[in-house]
Amino acid sequence: MSELLKRTLSSIVFVPGILVLLYLGGVYFDALCLGLSMVLVYEWLNLWRGYAVRKGLKFQELVFISVGVIYIGLAMHKFWTLKDIQHKQFMTFLIVWTTDVGAYIFGKKFGKTPFSPVISPKKTWEGFWGGVCVCVVICSAVMYAQLAELLPYTGASSFLYNFFSGITLFSTLVFSIRFMFYSIFAHLGDLLESWVKRYVGVKDSSQLIPGHGGFLDRFDSFLAVCCAYYVKDILHSCGIFF
């Protein structure tokens, strides 16, 4: 079976599975957060176990390991706090998926300028900004659709009328800044995991997801976006809103 076929089949099973658990919510959402946290921490520690066998661990590596566990824990806790905000749970994954798909398409089609040749030679600036733009456009459209459901139009007013009524210069600017912010964090999360894998000398964090590598390979951007929510909270406390 080719890697592309494995990747496609895994996505067909994996993505709907996550969406179903998000939709069911409650104990199912708790199970998703707990199970994912355990798998991610396991993969993280297992990465360094192999490194320790080959080279041993110095103080800085012990610090890396500890910080990584805290990073995963904080990110997953932040996601768990979205338990009663179902649309934000979905938006978190949508930010990650649209950034990833946009970066892949634009990088494949137009990629020429290396983004980080040392850490991840295949990534390009064209892919980076392509991912950001796709994320901004699709996620903003979803937000406008959510606004359309809240607008007080009834009777002959159609959903499309409500949808476009919500589009203003201010809302477009706010959504663009918001999703650009999150998408950049998604890219940085991917880059961070690439650096770690290069440091420990492995290609994938594990082989738990056929065609995709490990859960850390698939959720590196997700963890970064969840941590971006903390940064946004801090900015809000400083009076910066978007």
TrEMBL record:
<keyword id="KW-1133">Transmembrane helix</keyword>
<comment type="pathway">
    <text>Lipid metabolism.</text>
</comment>
<feature type="transmembrane region" description="Helical">
    <location>
        <begin position="127"/>
        <end position="147"/>
    </location>
</feature>
<feature type="transmembrane region" description="Helical">
    <location>
        <begin position="159"/>
        <end position="185"/>
    </location>
</feature>
<feature type="transmembrane region" description="Helical">
    <location>
        <begin position="12"/>
        <end position="42"/>
    </location>
</feature>
<keyword id="KW-0812">Transmembrane</keyword>
<protein>
    <recommendedName>
        <fullName>Phosphatidate cytidylyltransferase</fullName>
        <ecNumber>2.7.7.41</ecNumber>
    </recommendedName>
</protein>
<keyword id="KW-0808">Transferase</keyword>
<keyword id="KW-1003">Cell membrane</keyword>
<dbReference type="GO" id="GO:0016024">
    <property type="term" value="P:CDP-diacylglycerol biosynthetic process"/>
</dbReference>
<comment type="similarity">
    <text>Belongs to the CDS family.</text>
</comment>
<dbReference type="GO" id="GO:0005886">
    <property type="term" value="C:plasma membrane"/>
</dbReference>
<keyword id="KW-0594">Phospholipid biosynthesis</keyword>
<feature type="transmembrane region" description="Helical">
    <location>
        <begin position="62"/>
        <end position="81"/>
    </location>
</feature>
<feature type="transmembrane region" description="Helical">
    <location>
        <begin position="90"/>
        <end position="107"/>
    </location>
</feature>
<keyword id="KW-1208">Phospholipid metabolism</keyword>
<keyword id="KW-0443">Lipid metabolism</keyword>
<dbReference type="Pfam" id="PF01148">
    <property type="entry name" value="CTP_transf_1"/>
</dbReference>
<dbReference type="InterPro" id="IPR000374">
    <property type="entry name" value="PC_trans"/>
</dbReference>
<comment type="pathway">
    <text>Phospholipid metabolism; CDP-diacylglycerol biosynthesis; CDP-diacylglycerol from sn-glycerol 3-phosphate: step 3/3.</text>
</comment>
<keyword id="KW-0472">Membrane</keyword>
<keyword id="KW-0548">Nucleotidyltransferase</keyword>
<dbReference type="GO" id="GO:0004605">
    <property type="term" value="F:phosphatidate cytidylyltransferase activity"/>
</dbReference>
<keyword id="KW-0444">Lipid biosynthesis</keyword>
